[in-house]
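Chapter review: from sequence to fold.
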Amino acid sequence: MKSAYPGTQAVLRAISLLKAFTPDHPERSLAELCRGVGLNKTTAYRLLSALESEGLVERPPGGEGYRLGPELLALGNRALRAGELRQAGRSELLALAQQTRETATLEVRIGRDVLILDEALGSYVIGSTPSIGTRWPAHATSTGKVLLAFLAEDELERWLRGPLPAPTRRTQRDPAALRRELLRVRERGVAVSAEELEPGFVAVGAPVRQAAGDVVAAISVGGPKSRLTPERVSAIAREVPAAAARISRRLGFDDRTAPRASGPAPSRKARP
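The token string follows.
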């Protein structure tokens, strides 16, 4: 039966090639792979070439076969880290959602976006729509600002040269102004997004660190502007960093002894 989703068959075939490598057969020739997954040589070679270009398979030096590539290790490490993050953060998200009655999220950066890895819904009817897996432009969110603020200088410089879409008229699109804001976020350890992602939506974010001190995620509490008044934002801006610090400690970070290994602060030219 033909799939209703274009490209599904190619994806399934590529996955079957990856699964053909086993501990007993870590390296296979093209002919062996074709026999093992039932593909002709042309199709298998095309798929393997695509996988090789992404580092998912590689050819051993001097050999004619294939083996799994280093990018699979990176993907596996990301999956393990995501699971560890969710486990470490779950109770704090639930506590924040119960305490504030607003939705609390745990987010990571994926390229130029942030992705909601986990969340705990608030008890208010408005503002409690599930959105795990949703991606938003990083610079328009409180969590994204946190994650950008702790990038190494060269990485931040490259990021600022990219496109800055504006979901609302309040989204910051000027790289110099955004850099200045990120410096303040870095100094204060908390970020606010006020109607920059969506009109009427306000969120407060804070960094989550792993054992070495690197900022690997951020948590936030967000809701309608009608409820997140300036006074309430000030209170939440104390609660969210405290919860983030507890998650960081569960990940092995000790702010009394661990180095802050997140790279240098934004350059002096960006200071307000």
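Two observations follow directly from the output. Residues 259-272 have pLDDT under 50 and may be disordered. The chain has two domains: 8-68, 78-270.
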